[in-house]
Design brief:
Among the domains are: about 1-170, Winged helix-like DNA-binding domain superfamily/Winged helix DNA-binding domain (Arc Repressor Mutant, subunit A); about 270-420, P-loop containing nucleotide triphosphate hydrolases (Rossmann fold, 3-Layer(aba) Sandwich), CATH 3.40.50.300; about 430-505; about 520-590, Winged helix-like DNA-binding domain superfamily/Winged helix DNA-binding domain (Arc Repressor Mutant, subunit A), CATH 1.10.10.10; about 790-925, Tetratricopeptide repeat domain (Serine Threonine Protein Phosphatase 5, Tetratricopeptide repeat, Alpha Horseshoe). The chain contains 43 helices and 13 strands. GO terms for molecular function: ADP binding; DNA binding. Keywords: DNA-binding, TPR repeat, Transcription, Transcription regulation, Two-component regulatory system.
């Protein structure tokens, strides 16, 4: 069943299953409010226009557009409909889904209630629906009128609830709120009388009389009137100590109202989604106790969120707030026992010391009896586990419980319906705002680069941001760049995140979670901190920890429950950057070096062997055969079943695979250091990304040189030459390719020699020298034919055709490319087929055969998209734009060039992107009057 809620008692909004519906701009939202206020009643088009623009005939066409878009936004919600009627439009929905109508219903029920306790509760539920000013931010005359009417309804409900609570003898709890309200409504005599009565019943008759005099003088001075008879009568009763002002017989003396919450977090920032989730849970509880369990890693801001929400909603908990720090992960003290926590609650609830039962179960029963029926908040902070929390849960649905813990309290969710709320890192904008609230906007504006670095290194962890801010505030004359430089060093970053106190030392915070783990989980945690890449798969974690995937899942679940890792997608796990640093530190300190080395070798062997075999599945004709040693003891590489699975595996593991060579280098394993990048090369080439891997290939060459292995050196120089060429570094590309050539000659590798000649030719092509390129490709063709490699032969034939076309030999070029196409189709190489079709299109274009060129390009584009060859796809789209432009098809040219531009920019191909942008600009300059794009 889809749950829908509409709100006008605050900002105008609609929620479906708790998620906000996009309602569009302000006037469109105001239209929804205009229909919601008169739910189920026809509102004429003139009246709607008057409500939105202040003119009954204004912008009818626009209004119809608004209605149409609102219908679409609400189309999927069962039972909600905007329909056209003869007299206008009507919004149909249950009154219970609109906060305004729910508010009015609750107020009506409260006024008809048989007893004051029930009335006060219903009034409280009604007032809890308000989220601020009604129709917030809407500034039309109609909105202002409705806002004022609703404001008066709200004030009347507040006054009625206060009357009921005064009759219940709750005057002790009302004074503070009444004082604040009288400042907002200084001329309201009923409100003034309620404050006077509450003060008198609290034994503060002098203050009650003083407030009467203050009200009398203000009415006389500002309105020229005297207080009314009701207020004068109350004044006289207080003067004479009239016994009628004593709470009526049968009303118990007011119980103590505990106010145990710590001070609110002064600089709390963001978390609006999480705050809304807590509120939604409290609003939708029905007849059960509201229990919300806020979870997250140490320093994520769980306690601050709970306290901020509590203070934002204090009016809900007029009977008091209980708070206890359960010390579940305290670095210096043992966790608090439930019995001790309840003893503190009983003290706050006014139970005399001698009346506290010694038996723990009896204490729990007394505690639950005392809070039954009372509108109270219970905050259980820093819980270690569910067992510590369960005895502290009240049994009354009038209570709300907030729990914070570094563990996922799944048992509590299963047995007590607790709503889990996991906190993640602060988004960058909120992190920036938090830092600014600590240090001031001027200091941040003065050093934007340093601020960006600080935000990056704190990685959205509120405690880290607060520590950085505290250190910066302690040295206001120091530049932030100095602190940013200190945090930039990963080896000492955690040292920089220590403000000199246990509660604000990030290492100490993480350590309390680490030391709570069992031995196996602690070992797994530290090994994960040493693993390369931003996350890790279940299978890779099993290799790292030396266990089976099933056992690894149990271990990872333990760490996930402790909020030390997060399963962000099924069977993939990640750590927060700072938690990873701490875990790595502990791994290097606590783990036996031999155990650590074996674990990391298993992991890197797993990555290499799995990647190599996946590469051969995807690119069987293009994979250089490597002499892989056997996997290390205990390593079981994964074998992908087919090319589709291999593609999925590569996409999931790519960031880890790219990080793995640096770890291999650091551990002194040169063969792994160059073979890991080789297993990725073909994939990166098809994606158009090898130019991003220059640093990885430089590391690979350094490793190959250490091995003194000519074959390894030849391959790594070839790959770095290819990557440099694709990155536009042509001089560097030629230098490496020319070093690769004699190395391949030395090892007798004819195919490698052909590859070096071929890519030298590609490099000369990119430098607009087709004559030199042609000679290189002819050398490559000779080598390919000598070894009988048909697919490489086809590649050389294609590039020879391309060069001939650039030199003006169109017919001969066409023949070469047709030969290449025939070979690739016979061999089933679709990537090569796409390149041939692109070349044939280029040749046709330069022979003036534009429509034939487009036919080739469309075929090439289809193959590129089917083979995920985004590098060539960009080239083909650019050429398609050229052909369309030559035919005068400007709209089609613009569409093709825009797609090409997106790909070029994604691939960081600046030169090509600039050229395409110039083409687009030139097309805009000549006008697009004949184009149809953008027409309604």
């Amino acid at each position: 069943m889809v749950a829908v809620e509409f709100g006008v008692l605050g900002s105008i909004e609609a929620r479906v299953d708790g998620g906000l519906v996009e309602l569009g701009h302000a006037r469109q939202r105001l239209l929804l409010a205009a229909l919601l206020v008169d739910l189920g009643r026809e509102v004429s088009i003139e009246e709607l226009a008057e409500r939105i623009w202040g003119e009954s005939q204004a912008q009818r066409g626009t209004l119809y557009g608004y209605l149409s878009r609102l219908r679409r936004a609400l189309a999927a919600v069962e039972g909600v409909e905007i329909t056209r009627r003869p007299a206008g439009y009507v919004l149909t929905a249950g009154a219970a889904v609109v906060d305004l109508h729910r508010f009015r219903d609750l107020v009506d029920r409260a006024r008809a209630a048989e007893d004051d306790a029930q009335a006060a509760n219903l009034f409280g539920q009604a007032l809890d629906l308000w989220r601020g000013e009604a129709l917030a931010t809407m500034d039309t005359a109609w909105a202002g009128t409705v806002r004022e009417e609703l404001h008066q309804e709200r004030l009347a409900a507040e006054l009625d609830r206060t009357e009921a609570r005064l009759r219940l003898g709750q005057h002790l709890d009302l004074v503070a709120g009444l004082r604040a309200r009288t400042k907002e409504h200084p001329w309201d005599e009923r409100l003034a009388g309620q404050l006077m009565l509450a003060l008198y019943r609290c034994g503060r008759a002098t203050e009650a009389l003083a407030h009467y005099q203050h009200t009398r003088r203000r009415l006389a001075k500002e309105l020229g009137i005297d207080p009314g008879p009701e207020l004068r009568r109350l004044h006289q009763q207080i003067l004479t100590g009239d016994c009628a002002l004593t709470p009526r017989a049968g009303v118990a003396p007011a119980a103590p109202v505990p106010r145990q919450l710590p001070a609110p977090p002064a600089l709390f920032t963001g978390r609006e989604r999480e705050l809304a989730a807590l509120t939604a849970g409290a609003n939708g509880a029905g007849g059960t106790v509201v229990v919300s369990a806020i979870g997250g890693t140490g320093g994520i801001g769980k306690t601050h969120l709970a306290l901020h929400w509590a203070y934002r909603h204090l009016d809900r908990f007029g009977d008091g707030q209980l708070y206890v720090n359960l010390r579940g992960f305290d670095p210096s003290e043992e966790p608090l026992t439930p019995s001790a926590a309840i003893r503190g609650f009983l003290d706050a609830l006014g139970v005399a010391s001698g009346a506290v039962p010694p038996d723990p179960d009896a204490r729990v029963a007394l505690y639950r009896s005392l809070v039954a029926g009372r509108r109270m908040l219970v905050v259980l902070d820093n819980a270690r586990d569910s067992a510590q929390v369960v005895p502290l849960l009240p049994g009354s649905p009038s209570c709300t419980v907030l729990i914070t813990s570094r563990r996922q309290l799944t048992g509590l969710t299963a047995t007590h319906g607790a709503a889990p709320l996991a906190l993640d890192m602060l988004p960058e904008a909120e992190a920036h705002e938090l830092l600014g609230r600590h240090l001031g906007p001027d200091r941040l504006a003065a050093e934007p680069g340093a601020v960006a670095a600080l935000l990056k290194h704190c990685a959205g962890l509120p405690l880290a941001l607060s520590i950085v801010a505290a250190r910066a505030a302690a040295q206001p004359g120091f530049p932030l760049a100095h602190l940013a430089e200190e945090l930039a060093k990963t080896g000492t970053r955690l040292d920089a995140l220590d403000a000199g106190d246990l509660s604000v030392d990030l290492r100490t915070v993480f350590a309390s979670s680490y030391h709570a783990l069992d031995t196996a989980a602690a070992r797994g945690f530290t090994l994960l901190g040493l693993a390369p890449g931003p996350d890790i798969s279940l299978n890779a974690a099993a290799e790292l920890t030396g266990t089976t995937p099933a056992r690894a899942r149990v271990l990872l679940r333990t760490l996930e429950t402790a909020h030390l890792i997060q399963q962000h997608t099924p069977d993939r796990y990640r750590m927060h950057d700072l938690v990873r640093l701490y875990a790595g530190e502990q791994g290097r300190h606590d783990l036996d070096e031999a155990d650590r080395t074996r674990a990391l070798r298993r992991l890197l062997d797993f990555y290499l062997h799995t990647a190599y075999h996946a590469n051969r599945l995807l690119y069987p004709h293009w994979t250089i055969r490597l002499e892989l040693g056997p996997p290390s003891a205990g390593c079981t590489p994964h074998r992908c079943a087919d090319a589709a699975e291999a593609q999925q595996w590569f996409q999931a593991e790519l960031p880890c695979l790219q990080a793995a060579p640096q770890l291999a280098r650091a551990l002194g394993w040169p063969t792994l250091t160059w073979q890991l990048p080789e297993a990725l090369f073909n994939l990166r080439l098809r994606q158009g990304r090898p130019g991003e891997d220059l640093a990885m290939w430089r590391t690979a060459i350094e490793a190959a040189e250490r091995l003194d292995d000519p074959a390894a050196r030849a391959v790594t120089h070839l790959r770095l030459g290819q990557a440099s060429m694709l990155a536009g570094r042509y001089d560097e590309a030629r230098a490496h390719l020319e070093q690769a050539l004699p190395l391949f000659e030395r090892t007798g590798d004819l195919l490698g020699q052909g590859q070096a000649h071929f890519w030298l030719g590609i490099t000369w092509e990119q430098q607009a020298d087709p004559q030199r390129a042609l000679l290189c490709h002819e050398h490559a063709l000779d080598h390919y034919r000598a070894v009988g490699d048909a697919l490489h032969e086809a590649g050389a034939l294609n590039t020879i055709g391309w060069c001939l076309a650039q030199l003006g030999h169109g017919e001969k070029a066409h023949d070469y490319c047709e030969q290449a196409l025939a070979i690739n189709r016979a061999e089933g190489d679709r990537y090569g087929e796409a390149l041939n079709l692109e070349s044939l299109g280029y040749i046709a274009h330069h022979r003036g055969r534009y429509r034939q060129a487009l036919e080739y390009y469309h075929q090439a584009l289809t193959v590129c998209q089917e083979t995920d060859s985004t590098w060539s796809e960009a080239e083909v789209l650019g050429c398609m734009g050229d052909a369309h432009r030559a035919l005068g098809q400007h709209a089609e040219a613009r569409q093709a060039w825009r797609q090409a531009l997106d790909l070029y920019q994604t691939q960081h191909r600046t030169e090509q992107a600039t050229h395409v942008q110039q083409q687009l600009n030139a097309l805009d300059d000549i006008g697009t009057l004949t184009d149809t794009e953008g027409a309604p």
